Automatic annotation (TrEMBL):
Pathway linked to the protein: Protein modification; protein glycosylation
Protein family membership: In the C-terminal section; belongs to the glycosyltransferase 49 family. In the N-terminal section; belongs to the glycosyltransferase 8 family.
Protein name (Swiss-Prot/TrEMBL): LARGE xylosyl- and glucuronyltransferase 1
A GO term for molecular function: glucuronosyltransferase activity
Gene3D superfamilies: Spore Coat Polysaccharide Biosynthesis Protein SpsA, Chain A
Domain of life, per lineage: Eukaryota
Recorded catalytic activity of this chain's protein: 3-O-{beta-D-GlcA-(1->[3)-alpha-D-Xyl-(1->3)-beta-D-GlcA-(1->](n)-4)-beta-D-Xyl-(1->4)-Rib-ol-P-Rib-ol-P-3-beta-D-GalNAc-(1->3)-beta-D-GlcNAc-(1->4)-O-6-P-alpha-D-Man}-L-Thr-[protein] + UDP-alpha-D-xylose = 3-O-{(1->[3)-alpha-D-Xyl-(1->3)-beta-D-GlcA-(1->](n+1)-4)-beta-D-Xyl-(1->4)-Rib-ol-P-Rib-ol-P-3-beta-D-GalNAc-(1->3)-beta-D-GlcNAc-(1->4)-O-6-P-alpha-D-Man}-L-Thr-[protein] + UDP + H(+); 3-O-{(1->[3)-alpha-D-Xyl-(1->3)-beta-D-GlcA-(1->](n)-4)-beta-D-Xyl-(1->4)-Rib-ol-P-Rib-ol-P-3-beta-D-GalNAc-(1->3)-beta-D-GlcNAc-(1->4)-O-6-P-alpha-D-Man}-L-Thr-[protein] + UDP-alpha-D-glucuronate = 3-O-{beta-D-GlcA-(1->[3)-alpha-D-Xyl-(1->3)-beta-D-GlcA-(1->](n)-4)-beta-D-Xyl-(1->4)-Rib-ol-P-Rib-ol-P-3-beta-D-GalNAc-(1->3)-beta-D-GlcNAc-(1->4)-O-6-P-alpha-D-Man}-L-Thr-[protein] + UDP + H(+); 3-O-[beta-D-GlcA-(1->3)-beta-D-Xyl-(1->4)-Rib-ol-P-Rib-ol-P-3-beta-D-GalNAc-(1->3)-beta-D-GlcNAc-(1->4)-(O-6-P-alpha-D-Man)]-Thr-[protein] + UDP-alpha-D-xylose = 3-O-[alpha-D-Xyl-(1->3)-beta-D-GlcA-(1->4)-beta-D-Xyl-(1->4)-Rib-ol-P-Rib-ol-P-3-beta-D-GalNAc-(1->3)-beta-D-GlcNAc-(1->4)-(O-6-P-alpha-D-Man)]-Thr-[protein] + UDP + H(+)
High-level lineage: Eukaryota, Metazoa, Chordata, Craniata, Vertebrata
Subcellular location: Golgi apparatus membrane
GO cellular component: Golgi membrane
Main subcellular location of this protein, as a coarse class: Golgi
Membrane topology field: Single-pass type II membrane protein
Swiss-Prot/TrEMBL GO biological process terms: protein O-linked glycosylation via mannose
């Protein structure tokens, strides 16, 4: 169902949205936004109408859950959308990053600071699990732009099974003083017969559910909605003492006193899947379903005769590839977007006949990114020495997470390269792990799969950008740091005056070929295993140059930190300040991704200092897909060589004479 404006003789539903409204922030992904004004001439023109949707979303879990709702809306829609998110700082950070990197055409997003709204509703005692955020739909007339005339309000636990334009069209059916579109509550809650002495808030009949609301904002403002709901709440709280169902109780109390305000929506617009509801009366066939509402705390475990069907519908969108929703809308002219235009211009300048075209294109690919996929809590240390372990991984390395958490007690920032379905597998894995669930200082950032290469340096950059500590230890997921490395690095920060010098502290790397290893608890024990052949210096047999400058012979007897010089192909694992340079995105898959970064550190005059009592051990695993391509595909190796040469040329341009040694070293190697 594609809704159009008929401009000329019909007044539009929405005027131009004021982009300078306070308390919200604009995003600028590729979008199509229609801002219709009264035409100067009387002519007819068809414009697809922008549908406005408001959602209250706070915290890590709600930010993850709301994505499934958004996917279901995007999947069915054929109109431009404007999302209005009322968020806390956590949800805003997550959703702003997600929508910016999602780059869905014909979608605009605004954020409104929920913290600024708390004082409006904090005086209302609320027993509902949604907390203070469950009351914020009451103040939307005051929060949303003053020239926004109507909006669909949704809970985060909603799934759409049809085009949201069909629901938007219901506004046409409002008559008289009707300003609220609601579906009747499908449980017996407001009838007061669920248990002995059950005393709900006053409601009209069965009451109404506020998981889906149609709000005529302009008329509500004229009716002085703010004053209306406040007076009602104050009066009822004198006897009720608190709300049980948050905003829903107050909406119903207002409607009880003013029944003319409500337009009753057909119940298929809010099929409520909580225990003991009458939801089965809302549909006779699958085609009748419009909106599913998982409004029970049990969510997918709710009791319902057709719950398996509903669950499968929900899971379809949960695991649906969000990249497929980056589709243009037919019949909707695109609004100019500078980010999108610049990206298209850059891509158009690439030579598609270049054998290395795919490598070059990957550098500019925008990967959809969901920061903090799980709950995260970090408390900063008082002495400014704290350090975060940074790593990246794909699905086949999940088994390393528990071991790393056991070896490293400090904060961790991880970028995971997953599909939408794999992200849900990871979620189940993490939630089923006592080790992972006991840690709140691990940030999991999902970078969704796209393209044929593993974007290793993009992943590292994503993880680095979310570091909250002054220092970061740049590791890889298949290395286990020694027990106590976290505290040792923090002490080294003070010992080596890291705050006032540019140093990269090298943690010597070793490896084992044994899947079962008695991890050495001291340097002496490690040296013993090294002598027995249980351990080796990392990659000594296939890539000696990568770690030779560490000078393992000196390290064996060293008792104090010592400085080493950069050499060609040096790629140690280091701790650096948080403001150190990012990794170069041109290097994807296998080859030169760390080497280039270490070269950049050297060019910026970082000192490489080896720590005498630190070590890490690489654990064995099957070869990655990318290293297999490197070994078997000649063109892959040719392109890598080309990218290396271009990187070195860039270094020469940026760092001048000092960077000539990188060119010379490469020619002599």
């Amino acid at each position: 169902m594609l809704i159009y404006f008929l401009v000329g003789y019909l007044s539009p539903f929405d005027g131009c949205i004021n982009r300078e409204q306070p308390r919200y922030h604009n995003l600028n992904p590729p979008s199509i936004t229609f801002c219709l004004q009264e035409p100067k001439k009387k002519y007819f023109s068809l414009f697809p109408q922008t549908i406005h949707v408001a959602i209250v979303c706070a915290g890590y879990n709600a930010s993850r859950d709301v994505v499934t709702l958004v996917k279901s809306v995007l999947f069915h829609r054929r109109n431009p959308l404007h999302f209005h998110f009322i968020t806390d700082s956590i949800a805003q950070q997550i959703l702003a990053s997600l929508f910016t990197t999602w780059m869905v055409p014909a979608v605009r997003v605004n954020f409104y600071d929920a913290d600024e709204l708390k004082s409006e509703v904090s005086w209302i005692p609320n027993k509902h699990y949604s907390g203070i955020y469950g009351l914020m739909k009451l103040v939307l007339t005051k929060t949303l732009p003053s020239d926004l005339q109507r909006v669909i309000v949704l809970d985060t636990d909603i799934t759409f099974a049809t085009d949201i334009a069909e629901l938007w069209a219901v506004f046409h059916k409002f008559k008289g003083q009707q300003v609220l579109g609601l579906v009747e509550n499908q449980s017996d809650w407001y009838l007061g017969n669920l248990w002995k002495n059950h005393r709900p808030w006053p409601a009209l009949g069965r009451g109404f559910n506020t998981g889906v609301i149609l709000l005529l904002l302009d008329r509500l403002r004229k009716l002085k909605w703010e004053q209306m709901w406040r007076l009602t709440a104050e009066r009822e709280l004198m006897s009720m003492l608190s709300t049980s169902l948050a905003d829903q109780d107050i909406f119903n109390a207002v409607i009880k006193q003013n029944p003319f305000l409500v337009y009753q929506l057909p119940c298929f617009w809010n099929v409520q899947l909580s225990d003991h509801t009458r939801s089965e009366k809302c549909y006779k066939d699958v085609s009748d379903l419009k909106v599913i509402h998982w409004n029970s705390p049990k969510k997918l475990r709710v009791k319902n005769k057709h719950v398996e069907f509903f669950r499968n519908l929900y899971l379809t969108f949960l695991e649906y590839d969000g990249n497929l929703l980056r589709r243009e809308l037919f019949g909707c002219p695109s609004e100019a977007d500078h980010n999108s235009e610049n990206l298209q211009k850059t891509l158009s300048e690439l030579d598609e006949d270049d054998p290395c075209y795919e490598f070059r294109r990957e550098r500019f690919t925008v990967h959809r990114t969901h920061l903090y996929f799980l709950h995260y809590q970090y408390e900063s240390a008082d002495d400014s020495t704290d350090v975060t372990l940074v790593a990246q991984l794909s699905m086949d390395r999940l088994q390393m997470l528990e071991a790393i958490c056991k070896h490293w007690e400090g904060p961790i920032s991880l970028a995971l390269y997953l599909s939408d379905a794999e992200a849900q597998q990871f979620l189940r894995y993490a939630q089923g792990s006592e080790v992972l669930m006991s840690r709140s200082n691990v940030g999991y950032h999902i970078v969704y799969k796209e393209g044929q290469f593993y974007p290793v340096n993009l992943l590292r950059n994503v993880a680095m950008k979310q570091v909250n500590t002054p220092y970061m230890f740049l590791s890889d997921i298949d290395f286990l740091p020694m027990y106590g490395l976290y505290e040792y690095l923090r002490k080294s920060v003070l010992q080596l005056d890291m705050a006032n010098t540019k140093k990269a502290l090298v943690v010597p790397a070793f490896e084992t070929l044994r899947y079962r290893l008695s991890y050495p608890k001291s340097k002496a024990e490690l040296l013993s295993q090294l002598d027995m052949g249980t351990l080796f210096t990392f990659r000594y047999h296939v890539w000696t140059k990568g770690h030779a400058p560490t000078n393992f012979a000196k390290w064996r007897t060293a008792t104090t930190p010592y400085r080493v010089q950069w050499e060609p192909d040096f790629e140690p694992y280091v701790m650096v300040r948080r403001d150190s340079p990012e990794y170069d995105r041109r290097f994807v898959g296998f080859g030169w991704n760390k080497v280039a970064h270490v070269m950049e550190l050297d060019a910026q005059e970082y000192e490489f200092v080896v720590l005498p009592n630190a070590y890490m051990i690489h654990m064995p695993h099957a070869p990655s897909f990318d290293i297999t391509k490197f070994r078997s595909n000649k063109q892959y190796r040719v392109c890598l060589k080309t990218l290396k040469e271009e990187f070195q040329q860039n270094m020469s341009r940026r760092y001048g004479f000092a960077a000539l040694k990188y060119m010379t070293a490469e020619n002599n190697s």
